[in-house]
Amino acid sequence: MHRMESIYTPTILDKSTGTGKAEFIKIMEEFPKAFVSDHFKHQKKELLKTYHPHKQLTDSQLEALYQEWQKDLNVDKEGVWVWYPWLQKMVHLLPKDEFIALRTSRNQHKITPAEQKQLIEKRVGIIGLSVGHAVALTLATERGVGHLKLADFDTIDLSNLNRIKTGVFNIGINKSVVTAREIAEIDPFIVIECYTEGLTNENIQDFLTGGGKLDLLIDECDGLDIKIKVRLAARTLCIPVIMETSDRGMMDVERFDLEPKRPILHGLAEELNPDKLGQLTMEQKIPIVLKLTDAFKGSLRGRASLLEIGQTIGTWPQLASAVALGGAVVTDACRRIFLGQFTESGRFYVDMESIVCNQHKEVAEDIKQAIAPIYMKEAMAMVENHRAKHTNGVTPSKAAIEEMVTAACQAPSTGNDQPWKWVYQDGLLYLLHDVARSDSFGDYKFIASDITFGGAAENLILKAYKLGYKVYLETFPEGEKSRLIAIFSFFGENGNDPAIEKVKQPDLVNQIFHRSTNRNPTKNERLSQEIKEELNACVIAFEGAKHFFFDDEDSKRGLGSIIGGCDRIRLLNKDGHKDFVTREMRWTPKHAEETRDGIDIRTLCLAPAEIAALMLMKDPGVASLLHKIDGGKGLIDITIKSVMDSAGIGMITMSGGLGRKNFFDGGRVMENFWLKATELNLDIHPLISPFYLFPRISRGQGEGLDPLEKEKIERLKKNFQDITKIQDNCAKIFMYKIGKTTSIPTKALRLPLTETLFWGEHTNVINV
Question: What is the SS3 assignment for 757?
Answer without folding.
Answer: strand
